[in-house]
Each structure stands twice: as structure tokens, then as C-alpha cells.
Design a protein that fits this description.
single chain; mainly alpha; Serine Threonine Protein Phosphatase 5, Tetratricopeptide repeat; binds adenosine-5'-diphosphate; binds magnesium ion
Length: 211
């Protein structure tokens, strides 16, 4: 089993995610223009820029404090569906880490699963509803499965990234059953889900960090 995960690398992950969201803001907004209201890129970029600003102000010393701060910032700065959903995801991760000063790869995987649970509790998404869940759930499964086979965390995160990307791609033919896109009914078919696309960026950012 690989070494403990430092709060510094977790913060690196959050910052890399913010940078990827900024780079992909227009793309995310275009995806949302097709099946929503064209604000997903600007929503996530505003939220993650605010999260980075909050981290620049005071650097959290524990994983719990880090993700609680990111989650609270997203909830308070982003309206729409994605603020509460991504906010709850990070808040639940923070709660899962708690006050502990050390984080193992298994703690990390458990926190990610807890974050997924928060998304479900908040948005009631089920598999195949064409939401961020459809990228996040396979990523969580892939990481758990890799770690149960004694893989290093970095290897598990690559598997999670690939699973999230496949999950993102699989949303294209789906009919949306949750969120704004569901108002379109059949017309939502044939478009990639914006939130699932952001989740793929989140896992991409993890593989670009020094886990
Ligand atoms: P809004 O839909 O309020 O404009 P965004 O455009 O920022 O918010 O986010 C849209 C994304 O939120 C969708 O692409 C989808 O992935 C996600 N989403 C919407 N509703 C739900 C839900 N109930 N459960 C999980 N994810 C959802
Ligand atoms: Mg939108």
C-alpha cells in the first residue's frame, strides 16, 4: 500500500481542478447551452476561483478543513444545481476526513465515496439519469477496486480517471431524467452532460497531482 496522502497534495489537486475548469470554462458552457442554460462553465469557474482565493487566504492544515472550506465556498458562491451538488460532494469529503492529521489511500477512497453519497442525497440521481453521477460513480468504483487489488493510489487514480471519462462519454446517448436537461426530454439525447464532463476534469486533475 502506498504512503500517506499529504494535505499539500490534496490542495494541489483542488488547485489543478480549478485550473482545468478555467481552461475548459467555454467548453463546459457550450455543453450546457445545448441541454441547459449555458452557465455550467461560468458557475464552476466562479466557484473554483473563489475556492482557490479562500485557500490563498489561509492554508488549511488538515484534509478535513481543506475540503470543508472548498465545499462551503462552492455552496455560497455558485447558484444553480452544480453549487449545492459539487459543494456537498466536497463537504462530505471533508466530513469523511474529519480532524485526522493523516490520510491513507483508503481514507481518500472512502472520502470520495462519501462525496458521491452526498451528491446522491442531494440530487437523488440514479445510474443513467445523465448527470455528474454517471461519471463519478464509476470513478469511485474503479478506485476502490484498484486499491482492493493492492494498487498504488496513483495507479488507482488513473483507473478512476479512465472510468470517469468513459462515464462522461456514456452520458451522450442518455435521456436526461434529472436537472434542467430533463425538461428537454428526447431532445437531451445526443449531448454530453456538462456536470459529468466536470467530474472527468476532477479525476484528470488527480492524475496530474503528485499522489
Ligand atoms: P443548472 O442546471 O442549475 O444551470 P449547472 O448548469 O451548473 O446548473 O449544472 C448542470 C449539471 O448539474 C448537469 O450537467 C448535471 O450533471 C448536474 N445535475 C443536475 N441535476 C442533478 C441531480 N439531481 N443530481 C446530480 N447531478 C445533477
Ligand atoms: Mg446550467
Amino acid at each position: 500500500m502506498s504512503e500517506n496522502v499529504t494535505t499539500a497534495v490534496l490542495e494541489e489537486w483542488v488547485r489543478k481542478f480549478a485550473a482545468l475548469v478555467a481552461d475548459n470554462r467555454d467548453h463546459l458552457t457550450e455543453l450546457d447551452a445545448a441541454i441547459g442554460d449555458a452557465d455550467h462553465g461560468s458557475n464552476m469557474d466562479r466557484g473554483m476561483k473563489a475556492a482557490v482565493a479562500a485557500l490563498n487566504e489561509t492554508e488549511p492544515t488538515t484534509a478535513g478543513a481543506l475540503f470543508t472550506k472548498v465545499g462551503m465556498t462552492l455552496v455560497s458562491t455558485v447558484g444553480g444545481a452544480s453549487g449545492p451538488l459539487f459543494g456537498t460532494f466536497f463537504l462530505r469529503m471533508g466530513t469523511s476526513f474529519g480532524d485526522s492529521g493523516t490520510t491513507t489511500p483508503l481514507d481518500f477512497a472512502a472520502a470520495l465515496r462519501s462525496g458521491l453519497g452526498g451528491v446522491v442525497a442531494r440530487g437523488k440521481a440514479e445510474p443513467g439519469d445523465k448527470t455528474m453521477y454517471d461519471a463519478l460513480a464509476p470513478a469511485v468504483e474503479a478506485l476502490d477496486s484498484a486499491l482492493s487489488q493492492q494498487s498504488q493510489l496513483a495507479t488507482g487514480l488513473k483507473a478512476a480517471r479512465d472510468a470517469a471519462a468513459a462515464g462522461r462519454d456514456a452520458t451522450t446517448p442518455m435521456l436526461a431524467r434529472k436537472g434542467r436537461a430533463s425538461y428537454l426530454g428526447e431532445r437531451s439525447v445526443g449531448h454530453q452532460d456538462p456536470g459529468a464532463t466536470t467530474v472527468a476534469l476532477l479525476l484528470e486533475a488527480a492524475t496530474e497531482s503528485a499522489f
